[in-house]
Write a structure and sequence with these properties.
This protein is an alpha/beta fold and about 325 residues long. About 30% of the residues lie in helices and about 25% in strands. Helix 3 crosses helix 4. The longest helix has 21 residues. It is globular. This is NADP-dependent oxidoreductase.
Length: about 325
């Protein structure tokens, strides 16, 4: 099969289009013929080596986390899917590889594709959808009437998280550029801060939850807009001791991650708020719940641009520019 391969960590290196054997599904896996694959900033960060300490992959590596496609083979213990089923998933860590013609995926990570979506739209959902779900539903336990600040409302996670938070009954604030103000309002944002004109920390007050996806300076400002007892959940770091424990990191990695987040945790404690780092996990059961919301019309995917499979490197470069409105997808079939 054709696949885009990473031969070594390098920030500016392109992936190599090469031939790989078609994967054989394990007993608890399903072989999926990929029709479309979502492109995420995580792919770029892995390519550059930013996560090699906590995700030490062997080379050559087939990159790609999000996929939508059709089941072509099932393992002997796989029971929930059959050949011909249309499915989508965020492939689990250490089992990624959606920039390819096929992939073997753990059955537990798969869900049936939303009937209302095309393959390209479905491929745009898993990573950002699961990130928003695990941040707002699982970790923050966001409730009706609470206030949540979702940074970068026009980005992949932001576009999904705004819609999910509104479905949960929260008041949603976000940041975006002048050109996207009306657009994020249509997604459901109640309070919109144009970052080209205003500083959010002078406008927002007494928020229950912040979903942080930006740099350390923005994180520090965001801590100050929370009410006492509020929560800041960051998907952009710094990793905390809880994350180190979750991934079973060795002792020296636990120490490094503890030190990386010590300043942020001290500032949060001084303000009487909670800080947590989130590195989302693959989950077919949560995707199934997201599918129900999509097919009910509560959430819609936002796809900025679709590239042909042969242009996967160009798709990654486009994502790296940070200007996409929603998600970027590569189309195989």
């Amino acid at each position: 099969m054709k696949a885009f391969l990473l031969d070594r960590y390098a920030k500016n290196a392109n992936l190599r289009l090469g031939d790989m054997p078609e994967p054989m599904p394990g007993d608890d896996e399903v072989l999926v013929q990929i029709h479309a694959a979502g492109v995420n900033l995580l792919d770029s960060k892995i390519k550059s080596g930013e996560f090699k300490l906590i995700l030490p992959y062997h080379m050559p590596l087939v990159l790609g986390h999000d996929l939508a496609g059709m089941v072509v083979r099932v393992g002997s213990r796989a029971r929930r899917f059959k050949v011909g089923d249309e499915v989508y998933a965020r492939a689990p860590d250490f089992h990624i590889g959606s920039f390819a013609e096929s992939i073997a995926v753990k059955e537990s990570a798969l869900a049936h594709k939303p009937k209302s979506l095309s393959m390209e739209e479905a491929a745009a959902i898993p990573l950002v959808g699961l990130t928003a779900w695990q941040a707002l539903v699982e970790k923050a336990k966001l409730k009706k009437g609470q206030k949540v600040f979702i940074q970068a409302g026009s980005g992949g996670v932001g576009t999904f998280a705004i819609q999910l938070a509104k479905h949960l009954g929260a008041t949603v604030a976000t940041t975006t550029s002048t050109a996207n103000v009306d657009w994020v309002k249509r997604l459901g944002a109640d309070v919109i801060v144009d970052y080209k004109k205003d500083n959010f920390e002078t406008i927002l007050r007494d928020y229950d939850v912040v979903l942080n996806s930006q740099d350390g300076k923005t994180l520090e400002k965001s801590l100050r807009i929370l009410k006492p007892g509020g929560q800041l959940i960051s998907i952009s770091g710094p990793p905390d001791p809880g994350f180190a424990k979750d991934i079973g990191a060795p002792g020296f990695v636990k120490l490094i991650l503890r030190l990386l987040s010590s300043g942020t945790r001290r500032k949060a404690n001084a303000l009487g708020v909670d800080y947590a780092f989130l590195f989302m996990k693959a989950s077919g059961s949560q995707l199934h719940q997201i599918t129900s919301l999509i097919d009910a019309g509560a959430i819609r995917p936002v796809v900025d641009k679709i590239f042909p499979f042969e242009s996967t490197n160009e798709a990654i470069a486009y994502v790296e520019k940070g200007r996409a409105k929603g998600k970027v997808v590569v189309k195989l079939k």
